[in-house]
Amino acid sequence: MVRALDLTALKSFVAVADAGGVTRAANLLNLTQSAVSMQMKRLEDSLGVALLDRTARTVSLTTAGELLLSYGRRMLEMNDEIVSRLTDTHFEGELVLGVPHDLVFPHIPAIMQRFNAEFPRMRVQLLSSYTRFLKEKYARRECDVILTTEETYGEDGETLTHLPLVWVGAPGGSAWKTRPLRLAFEKACIFRAPVQAALDKAGIGWEIAVESDSTRTIEVSVSADLAVTAMIAGMAATYLEEIPVKHHLPTLPTRQINLYVSRRDKSLPRDRMADLLRQAYTSAGQSLGRVA
Fold it and tell me: In CATH, what is the architecture of 163-254?
């Protein structure tokens, strides 16, 4: 028959290992020294192995104890997570996060995963669209937090970093060589005009080869080497790649990554989401050597 570990005794064991002794562990756990010692003995008896080496002047772990410590930490963390997710009702509800299509990767999935771990009963609705649309939703109080890509920032806006637009194409592709240069853009993309202006200034002819309301259509077309497009540096999907400047395409302008956070009432989850966004996108600017 499989034996079940006593989580209370396991918690005491981990405390003994961390504190370096039974007495210190007892103080941390608000238990008597004898109670902790009894739990250690019960745990050893149930497993049939010695967990603590009591021959030295200080308490140290046996080989079996070291192995149990590794498993024990994970078991206690999982126990705490389960209890938190099933019983924590302090923060409940929905948070609406708006992010432009080209800022979703690579940071937003990790941010949402972190937020969910901290606020398991909060539901995040991710709205991915154009900056213009997101600002309209925010103005109507239909979004709690939004990111934008803009030349400047409006009321309540906070600039996280400045990042350049870069040319993007298929890995190893040759669409950048075509003349007129074949471009792929969404109809409402705010990058179209500055890209076209940069090409005109450089004397490079261009044509809109792919136009769509769908970000996925644009990305698929570019990944198939049918055209090139422009995105914020460092935000291209893994199946696309930045086109090196040595390919003689014009340098594109820089855009601000801005954050807007609703202040209509106090909200710890909303503030925490804003903090996670600040950390991720400020770090993105630092890694590229461009900080607001």
Answer: 3-Layer(aba) Sandwich (3.40)
